[in-house]
Amino acid sequence: MSTYREIHGKAIKSLSSDLSAAIDEGQVWYNTSGDTFKSIVKLEAWSSASNLGTARYNIMSANGAAADAALAFGGSTNPSGTASNSTEEYNGSGWAVGGNMGTARYAGAGAGTQTAGLAFGGRPPGSATTATEEYDGSSWTSGGALPVAKTGLSGCGTQTAGLSFGGSPPTRDTSDEYNGSSWTAGGTLSVAFEDAAGAGTQTAGLKFGGRGTPTQTTEKYNGSSWTTSGLMNTGRGYLAGAGTQTAALGYGGMTLPSTYQTATESYDGSTWTTLPATMATNRRMFGGTGATTSAALAFGGENAGSPHFATTEEYNSSINAYTAAAWSSGGNLPTPISSTQGGGTQTAGLQMSGQPSGPGVAATTAVNEYDGSAWTAGGAIAPGAASYGGQASKNGTQTAMLYFKGHYAGNKNTVSSYDGSSWTAQSTFPNTDVYGGGCGTSTAALSVGGFAPSSPYVQATCFESDGSYNWTAGGALGTARYVNDAVGLQTNAVTAGGLAPSVLAKTEEYNGSSWSEKSDMISNTGNTKDQCFGTNSDDMMVAGGPPNLATCIGWDGTAWSTRPSISTGRGGGAGAGASSTSGWIGGGQSPFKTATEEFNGETSTINVKTLTQS
Length: 614
Prior knowledge:
By secondary structure, this protein is an all-beta fold. Helix content is 1%, strand content 41%.
């Protein structure tokens, strides 16, 4: 009889603790502490990810891109079939805005990568198009036109070696090859079809599924001709694919007559196998990508319950168990509060003063401390410093914080410092502007923008404090604003959003002496009374209003991208955190709230499985 070592090439180990390295996949060991046999086992699963910035279906994608560097473009943004020209780029955490296409369209095809993408065919308002466009990572330019206008076609390959196949009208069995400037005729498929999936390259392409007869058909391309190779277990159209000709994934779609699918299948070059992993959202007409079968992405689409959505899911086949980035409920504040300020971290937070209910109610002196699960009363701020719309050195700590300015019974110029138990009045602020952004530390704070009591009301001013709580003017903002927020340190900060006096999307970065304009915020994801936490290059902007928003976006120092939404939309709450992957938001309106939510970024752990007899 063969031994385990002879079969698997590894001996069973005896260990007092579990293994945790990727190289130990498949290793079996006896855990002496727990009296159990264990192994590191691969998992196959879909998990939720940050939504697209714009909900749409019939979306196109560069299907040669890696799952953490996807490119989505075109599509339709409403049930009436309005064509979109917008582009979004996925960075593994969220979606950022890319350059607009020259021709708005939906139900076209794509190939290539995020920095070298290819779009071809599709339907603008009206009939199908021959238009081809190339993407360089920031903008689209016109390429060579398809020989025939088509919609519902499929594609694979690269920007300089692309492959187009199938489509309509009428339903076609033809394919075409792209060389970076023009299309030429390729081989003929055995089955005419539309709305199939594709994977691979121009000389090793793969077509599977689609609306044809039969719907399970799979065909391989060798650079000149197509041959059939295996049937999918679930025949379907409007699906998406990832991988290569010999290792592919097919997922989602719709079976006839109208059953929306979540099923995932893998292909080994000859045979399809249904995987246990299924998508959480059944969908068709969605975008998909993935360079390998170990990581894929699904985004957008529609189903019977929604004519178009922004939902994104990630597929991973890995020895790691992934926990998606998400917001979760934290401990409620003792009383409802708005126009308040926060500071510190997720496990050592501070909420300061603010408005406890509607107009005419006195500003509260209450200060609350958060330990990551519950709020307790901290040292009360002096009655003369209590205010609405104040600012704070939010990148300070629970035991070293500044709170300054604000208004109640007139605008204030008070400055107070906190040592973890009590507040001390410090030198007064140079002005009485309110509703600006505040950040920095207790000994090096920054005040950005605000609203003055007399004309000109909207301010571009910036002030810096020193270790003795003295304030001096810093570099002026490029765009005056108020009800903005800021995050970072006195020498490297960022501010975004606010009113100027209309809603503002502009982002500006501070280097300790001057402000420079950066990429705008994503539209419809924040405006006024937002809360930021993190650093100048790793920032999360949360909620805002009016109207009260639940959307969140992240800043990486260059661009904004989408993040998971909070459950309770609000504006004017408090928030803080050390990075964009660990923070909290509490309070806000309207109505006035006590709810606290905590954000945690994606995590992964080695999947150690206890082996049992069955």
